[in-house]
Amino acid sequence: MKLIIAIVNRDDASAVTQALTKKGFSSTKLSTTGGFLMAGNVTILIGVDEERVQTVIDIIKEQSHSRKQMIPTTTEMSYGYYPSMPVEVTVGGATIFVVDIDRFERV
């Protein structure tokens, strides 16, 4: 048995979990924050048999999309912060971890 931990952009989270459910996979969704922008992400936990791991990864890839976003930058001066030119960054997509499960019990 494997545990898939997928960190996806909050904008894609519903599409990912709905697609997983439609294909018969159960998942747990956790709201998380992190990364370069400290933006809202969702961490999705999916327990699956080893032979179904690639199917789950394919679903996540299909539903998680990268996108461009403009973010403000700031410059520190001696008396405070001053806004400067916005910067375009790529956000979205997914980060996926697959780990072994030593024991699984449903109680």
Can you put this structure into words, describing what you see?
The structure is a single chain. By secondary structure, this protein is α+β, with helices and mostly antiparallel strands. The protein has a single domain, classed as Alpha-Beta Plaits (2-Layer Sandwich), CATH 3.30.70. The protein is built from 2 helices and 8 strands, in the order E-H-E-E-H-E-E-E-E-E.
Query: Would you give the CATH topology?
Result: Alpha-Beta Plaits
The pLDDT mean sits at 84
The unreliable regions are: none
Sheet with the most strands? 4 strands, antiparallel
State the end-to-end distance.
17 Å
Tell me what the CATH architecture is: 2-Layer Sandwich
SSE string: EHEEHEEEEE
Count of strand segments? 8
Question: What would the principal axes of the Cα set say about the shape?
Answer: elongated
Taken as a percent bin, the fraction of beta residues is over 45%
- Helix/strand-derived category reads alpha+beta
Number of domains: 1
Compile the SSE list and pairings.
Blueprint: E1 2-9, H1 10-22, E2 28-34, E3 39-48, H2 53-63, E4 66-71, E5 74-77, E6 80-83, E7 87-92, E8 94-100
Antiparallel strand pairs: 1-3, 1-8, 2-3, 4-7, 5-6
Throw out a few tags for this protein.
single chain, about 110 residues, alpha+beta, Alpha-Beta Plaits, four-stranded antiparallel beta sheet, two-stranded antiparallel ribbon, elongated
